[in-house]
Amino acid sequence: MAELSGLADDRALLGRTSTAERVADILRSRIAEGYFPPGTRLSEDSIGAALGVSRNTLREAFRLLTHERLLVHELNRGVFVRVLTVEDVEDIYRTRTLVECAVVRGLGEPPYAVDGLATAVANGRRAAREEEWTGVSTANIHFHRELVALAGSARTDELMRSVFAELRLAFHVVDDPRRLHEPYLARNREILQTLQKGDRDGAERLLAGYLDDSLRGLVAVYGRRVADGARGTG
User: Fold this and answer.
1) Contacts of range 184-191, beta carbons closer than 8 Å, 24 or more positions apart
2) Full pLDDT tens readout for the chain, 234 residues
3) Does the model's pTM come out above 0.85?
4) Are 210 and 216 spatial neighbours (Cβ–Cβ below 8 Å)?
């Protein structure tokens, strides 16, 4: 598998204190980046050899990622990268709306520390100019992670890290990432500018509308792709 050659390069990240959590971090990142697309079977032997870790360590990492709903274990078949349902996508957006809008609502008095948001907006626009639509998607996720980080809550950051990783599983199934992600470049910038002006309420309204529109657009595309896949395997 071509992706395993890149995975072997990650062995240095483990150092001498190799743990299942660090292996899970590596695999989570690789899944989010699309190296292991939804539906991929993960080979214990190949991945263990690439990372230089024991079978038990790798199985514990798989267990952690299964708990995060990124992997699924199928009896007598192995471990696979999860394929989300439309209902999963809808639930992800319910969680996003609850958390992200609450973060903006609770910001307190301006000025707000939006440097991270500004960097994500700049990175997204640069990726769009280069027509790197996967990069636009990554910058978009970073924008929303930075937005959540404004709450200053490690627990909220950890919760949403898993939610955003799940969201990337849906993005990897979409066959036209430009159409999906490009419209939100301007909307991210508008939210940023509204927060820079100190208008917390206005930013929350923009964000709520953004998430509602994003859900509708993704469900329409994702549902069609999942249905096509089901017909193709029928």
Assistant:
1) 184/140, 184/210, 184/214, 185/121, 185/124, 185/125, 185/128, 185/136, 185/140, 188/117, 188/120, 188/121, 188/124, 188/140, 188/143, 189/121, 189/125, 191/117, 191/147
2) 555 666 777 766 665 445 789 899 999 989 888 889 999 999 999 999 999 999 999 999 999 999 999 999 999 899 999 999 999 999 999 999 999 999 999 999 999 999 999 999 999 999 999 999 989 999 999 999 999 999 999 999 999 998 999 999 998 888 788 988 999 999 999 999 999 999 999 999 999 999 999 999 999 888 777 666 544 444
3) no
4) no
